[in-house]
Amino acid sequence: DAKTTQPPSMDCAEGRAANLPCNHSTISGNEYVYWYRQIHSQGPQYIIHGLKNNETNEMASLIITEDRKSSTLILPHATLRDTAVYYCIVRPSLMDSNYQLIWGAGTKLIIKP
Amino acid sequence: DAGVIQSPRHEVTEMGQEVTLRCKPISGHDYLFWYRQTMMRGLELLIYFNNNVPIDDSGMPEDRFSAKMPNASFSTLKIQPSEPRDSAVYFCASSSTPGGRPSYEQYFGPGTRLTVT
Q: Do the Cβ atoms of A49 and B104 come within 8 Å?
C-alpha cells in the first residue's frame, strides 16, 4: 500500500481557500486517492476521491499531479466549520485481501476568523 | 436517511464488566465496519462484515472482543471482560457496493466513547 505524507498542521483565514497537500510518491497505477476529514468529537466524513483526473464536488476539489505522486485538496471558501483533521488515504480500486483504510495522523486544519 | 446510528454515545463501566456497543448501518449498505480510535494508535479497523458475514476480524485485539451482525440493520461489538486499556472511541461505519465493486466511501456514525475504570 502506498504511504502518504501530510503536514501535521495548517492555518487558513476564514473565507480564503484552504489548500491541503499530500505526498504519495509510491502510488501505483490502480490506486485511488481518498480524502476524509474528522471534525472534533465526530466520526470521519468522506470528502472526495480521484484516480488521475481532477475532481470536484460540493465540498471540495481534488487536484492530482500528472505523475500522481502528490495531490492537493482545496476547500474554496473555508469556514470555521471546516476546522478538522484531514486524512489523505491511498487505496487500490479493487478489494484486496486486506480491505482497510490506512489512517495516518492527517493534517490538523485550523480556520481562523 | 438518518445516517449510521450508534448507541450508547457514552459508556462508563468498571473493569471486568461486559460492554455492548450497538450500530445500525445506513439502509441498503452491505458493508459494515467497526473501528477503534485512541490518541496513541489513531483509527484502527477491528472487523468488517459483508452481507452480515464477518470477512476480516484480524484487527480484533483479543478474545475478549466479539462482534455480531444478526441482520442487515443491526450489529453489536461486545467486550467481556472490559479492561481500562479498552477505553477509546468506537466507530461504526457502513458502505455500499456501487456497480458491484466495494467502495472506500464509508459513512461513519458519531461513535461511542467508552471509559473503563
A: yes
Interatomic CA distance for residues B33 and B93, integer angstroms: 5
**Mean pLDDT score, B29-36:** 93
pLDDT at B26 over 90: yes
Q: Does position A93 have pLDDT exceeding 80, yes or no?
A: no
Q: Which residue type is seen at B26? A: I
- Shortest distance between the Cα of A1 and any Cα of chain B, in A, equals 14
Q: How does the average pLDDT of chain B come out, rounded?
A: 93
Chosen from B89, B104, B105, B106 to mutate, greatest number of chain A CBs within 10 A: B104
Tell whether B4 is within 8 A of chain A (Cβ).
yes
